[in-house]
Design goal:
14 helices, alpha/beta, 447 residues, 2 domains, Rossmann fold, 7-stranded parallel beta sheet
Length: 447
């Protein structure tokens, strides 16, 4: 199906054509028609499926074709879990609203708060931001959502993982009216928290599921390598990583320290690498992403900070130097390649410390596991075998003999009622002897 076949404003079709976008992906073909009818949407789709346009296109079409509820308040709010993803979504929004009267602003943490307040006073039609910073502006009365027409949550599962439940509740309460349309996109819609949030935010939503199993793309070739440790991982990385025809690669590590160390290692091999981690200031992070997206660097070395929000079609290879702690992050990591119908490859180095993570990834997402070997490198580690559970034998013992207890000896109680108290101690006085005073015993007297 083509975008030109949808009942949308011609300016949107023109902007999509300028961006060389003509065919709808599966999630777009299923979500956009329902969203155009102002229905609430609950959609599950894998990374890189084109879900951003699935909510941006119907959003912009509504704003262009329907009358605003309020002239002062923003008409649409898009929430993303991270600053990087919010910036990516903001870039798509700007493409689609080009040459229209609609104005969009980016409101995320790490940027100057007062400058953002000035932008909000200009009453933008669309706001793309992170839940934390939006809630801050609401609490400070810098932003009002009484006239909000569309509330869109991108990667809602990730927002819940990052602990934005309270902020989402604040945003919902500020724009809780019957005319609001809500669209929620998530990697999965089966989590208990997602279901709970759905009952609060959505009204009779249209449920859409595209590749709900969250399996990796068929366009991504996956391979794993055993590794004996950090020094061997460095050697393996230098041989696995290959940049061909100006393609790019992303290397994921577990720690911020390793991002810079590996970047320095790759630069000594003339691979033109750059590091991205949480220690950088927001403007520095923005500059790194901008330089990488423009092809000024061939390799991006980052933590899970970059696992979501990077939409760069030129990334041909993803390497997991360390496996993530949570298995779902593996899907989002390798989803940085194989985008927009292109082929990609994902290589993972599995050491002793990565084994539990590998087992979790295998149990949840992998049907077949392909282990390879790097030429010239021999590894001793080949996995950890599960220890067999010990079977406890039942020990049958003879029944214990019943020993009859001997009866207690009875003691004769002493009657103390007939005693006489003397001082503080009861003493039984002996009976007094009575003398015989008969006549025979009297002394003789004279008559």
């Amino acid at each position: 199906m083509l975008f030109s076949e949808l009942p949308i404003d011609h300016r949107i079709v023109k902007n999509l054509s300028t961006a060389q976008l003509s065919d709808l992906t599966d999630i777009q073909a299923q979500a956009i028609p329902h969203a155009l009818l102002n229905k609430d949407i609950l959609a599950a789709s894998k990374t890189g499926s084109g879900k951003t346009l699935a909510f941006v296109v119907p959003m912009v079409n509504r704003l262009l074709t329907q009358r605003a509820l309020s002239k002062a308040d923003p008409r649409a709010l898009i929430l993303a879990p991270t600053r990087e993803l919010a910036k990516q979504v903001y870039g798509v929004v700007r493409q689609i609203v080009a040459n229209t009267t609609l104005q969009a602003n980016l409101i995320v943490g790490g940027e100057n708060y007062n400058d953002q307040a000035k932008l909000l006073r200009k009453n933008p039609h669309i706001i793309v931001g992170t839940a934390g910073r939006i809630a801050d502006h609401l609490n400070d009365k810098q932003l009002f959502l009484h006239g909000l027409e569309l509330l869109i949550l991108d990667e809602a599962d990730r927002m819940l993982e990052l602990g934005f439940v309270e902020q989402l509740a604040i945003i919902h309460s500020q724009a809780d009216h019957r005319k609001r349309q809500t669209m929620m996109f998530s990697a999965t819609i089966e989590q208990a928290q997602i279901k709970e949030m759905t009952t609060v935010l959505l009204k009779s939503p249209q449920k859409i599921s595209v590749d709900a199993s969250n399996k990796p793309h068929k366009d991504i070739t996956q391979i794993f390598y055993f590794s004996d440790g950090v020094s061997q991982k460095d050697e393996q990385l230098s041989k696995i990583l290959r940049i061909v025809n100006q393609e790019q690669a992303i290397v994921f590590t577990a720690t911020r320290t390793d991002t810079q160390r590996i970047t320095d290692l790759l630069n000594t091999l003339h691979l033109n690498a750059v590091a991205l981690n949480g220690e950088l200031l927001q403007n520095q992070r923005n500059q790194v992403l901008q330089d990488f997206s423009k092809g000024r660097f061939s390799v991006l070395v980052c933590t899970d900070l970059g696992a979501r929000g990077l939409d760069i079609s030129n990334v041909a290879q993803v390497i997991n130097y360390d496996l993530p702690k949570f298995p779902e992050e593996y899907i989002h990591r390798i989803g940085r390649t194989g985008r927009a119908g292109r082929q990609g490859s994902a290589a993972s180095l599995v050491g002793k410390k990565d084994w539990l993570s590998f087992q979790a990834i295998k149990a949840n997402y992998l049907d077949d596991v392909n282990f390879g070997a790097v030429d010239g490198i021999n590894t001793r580690f080949t996995g950890i075998k599960a220890r067999p559970k010990k079977v406890l034998k039942k020990v049958y013992s003879k029944p214990a003999k019943i020993v009859k207890k001997a009866p207690k000896a009875t003691t004769k109680r002493i009657n103390t009622m007939g005693s006489v108290d003397i001082g503080h101690a009861p003493i039984k006085r002996q009976a007094r002897k009575i003398e015989n005073n008969s006549d025979d015993s009297r002394p003789d007297t004279e008559d």
